[in-house]
Every structure is written in C-alpha cells, then in structure tokens.
Amino acid sequence: MVGFKKVPTKSVLIIFFLSIFLIMLLYADFVTDDSLPEERIEISEKLNEQVSDLFSYRIHEVLNGENLSIIFEEFLLPLNTAYKIFRLDKNNLLSKIKPGDEMKFSYLGDDITSIEITKDSTNSILIEISNDISIKKISKDVELIKSFKSGIIKTSFYEAALDADIPDSIIMDFAYILGWDIDFVFDIRKGDSFYVIYETPYSSGEQIQNGDIVTAKFINKGKTYSANRFFTDKNKKEFFDNDGNNMQKAFLRAPLDFAYISSHFNPNRMHPVLHTIRAHNGVDYAAKRGSPVRSTGDGSVQFVGRKNGCGNEIVIKHSNDISTRYCHLEGFASNIRKAKKVNQGDTIGFVGSTGLATGPHLHYEFKIGGKNIDPIKVKLPSAEPISKEFKSSFDTLVEDNKLLLSRFEYLYPNEYD
Prior knowledge:
The protein has helices at 10-32, 45-54, 68-74, 79-88, 157-163, 168-178, 388-411; strands at residues 55-61, 102-108, 111-118, 123-129, 133-139, 143-152, 193-203, 206-207, 212-220, 223-233, 236-240, 260-263, 283-286, 292-294, 299-307, 311-317, 322-327, 329-332, 341-342, 347-351, 361-368, 371-373.
C-alpha cells in the first residue's frame, strides 16, 4: 500500500513565520534591556492638607465652677446632641465629672465624633457620636509588678536607700511605717540592713501610680523589725509586725522624716543664745529650712502663733492629757488654725529659725499631764493589734512574706555582703 506525504497548508506556514518573528522581537528587547518607562504616581500636597484637615481633636481640663453644658457649648456640640447625651446617661457617669478631669473632643471636619473624659490613669468615659450615641465606661487592665530591694547603711538610711535604687515614695513609706519603733535619725547605725518588697501598678507598659510596700524588714543594732501589709477592709490597709502587733503607735517617734538631733532633752543645758543654764525640755532636730513638720499624733490645735523665744509655734492637744509643741517654725500649713483637728502625719508647719534660734531647726516637746517627757525615751502606746477574726489569714500572709523575702535574698544577695 502506497503512503501519502502531508504538505503544510498556506495558513499554517503564515502562523509559523509570525511566531518566529514575535520570538525574535522579545529576544531583542531582552538583550538591549530597554524596559518600559516607570510610571510615577504623585499625591498632591493640597490633597494631603485637605485630608488632614478632616480629622482633629481638642483637649480641655475641667475647671472649678464648670459644668458639662457650658463645656459642650464651648466646643460646638449641637444642643440637641447634648440633650440626647444627658438623656442616655442612665448610670449617671457624667454627674461624676470633677475639676482636673481631662476631656478630649475628636472632630471629623466640624462635627464631633467622640468625647473621651479621662478620670485617672486607668479609668475613662467614652461618648461616641454618630447616627446613634453611646456612653460607656472604659477601664484599663492593671498589672502589679513586685520589686525587691535591700541595702546596708554606711552613713544614713536615706542615702543607702537611694544607692539601692529605691524610689523616693517607697523610702518615705518605709520610714513612716517603721518610724514608730525606729527613729531614722537617732537610732540608725553603720552596718544596719534593710529589705523591702513593694508592688508597682503598670497599665499598657507605663507606671500609673507609686509603688506600695508589701513587706519590709529592718535590722537595727542586731534587732529585727518587720512590717506586713494587711487589708482589714477592702479600702483599709494596716501594717503589723510578725506577731500581729500594729506597727502604728498613737504617736510618731519623730516629727520630721530626715534630720539629725542637734540637742537632746536636758534639764541643765546651757542655752546657746542666752548663755545661761536653762532647762531644755524637748529635742532639737536640725533640718533644712522649709522642711515639712508633721503632727506626731491625732489631736486638735490648741495654739498657733508667735510666742517669745519659741518664735512661731504650734501646740497640739491629744487624748490622755498629752500635748506636743513645735517651735521656731518658718511658717504654718495653710489650713492650720486654732481648734483645727489634725491627724497623725499631717503637715502642720515648716522648719525655720524664728525666736531665739541660732539656725534652722525644730524644737519638739512631749508633755503628759503638763509634765515634759523626753520624746526619745517615752514608751509610745500601740494601735489595735490584728483581730482574732483575721489572725489565721494574717499568719498565712506572714509565712508567705518570709518565704518571699528569703527567695529574693537568695536570688539577689546584697552587694555589700
């Protein structure tokens, strides 16, 4: 059988040659690297300005005497929108606005889209305004970070605490909590050691408040003093030693945070100005002019004014026929007046050198039944100990604190040891 040979048709040949031609064109473009021109897109600066003008905000701090109606009007909130907001405030969140609150008004063009009222570092009120209006309370999550610090005293507690990188607020709290048992001026010795664990609240990675002491320990002349924070009520914290005795006494040991005793209680002291033998019925604390002076106990102001060699003085009457006297003050706290009730730790005046004084210092007296007693040696009565109701849970807390301190001491041994 004889076979037949196929012959390409004309159309097939045309397609073949066209394909070859196109391949050659593409190859030539690749070899010469003649790429297509880059398209450049530019946004007009004028358009940018128009877009940025659409979104804006204004900040306002609430002042004394202001109310929301006045503030809303000032920030161009339509009257009917303000009425809707007040009607929708079923939980009376907006009635709690007070001076110092910060308000942020956000705008889209001339229209307000939201109002955020910041109450504190973690709480705010958000009013969203669109076709509908919503009012809601916003609370940020708070994380408590525990810190452990310790140190050994070389010169003073304050300097040693700063060297240990302890915040000022914690240093002051430490001295206040343990200040009923230890005079941080008179009792401190070189080689004394201290340990403290405190919690610092953070929100969104930022510190929002000063830290708060959880437990503290101070070893003074070989004797250990401990303090443990315990909440006897949701909003009431107290500090107790390891046995449940209240750290708080009816009186502070000293009326100044940090100073040094320049003259002790002495009935036969030579007066530095008069140069005569004159009883020194109190203790002199040398301190910087203007240093705050605290009331050492709860009471009421019996006298405030200027009197003879004492200069500017305050006398406070306490319970159990006890009174305290503060002399040579530069001035008085703005709210101090006769019969004014004061609490332990309240600032009542400021260190000065008025009256017969050779330099800025505080003269402090402590009287029982009209008789002067040495403030350094008087035994101070304590506040109430831990109640039986809380004793079991408190004992558990103390053991936990001891374990926590020992773990931290092991992990972070003191650099001076």
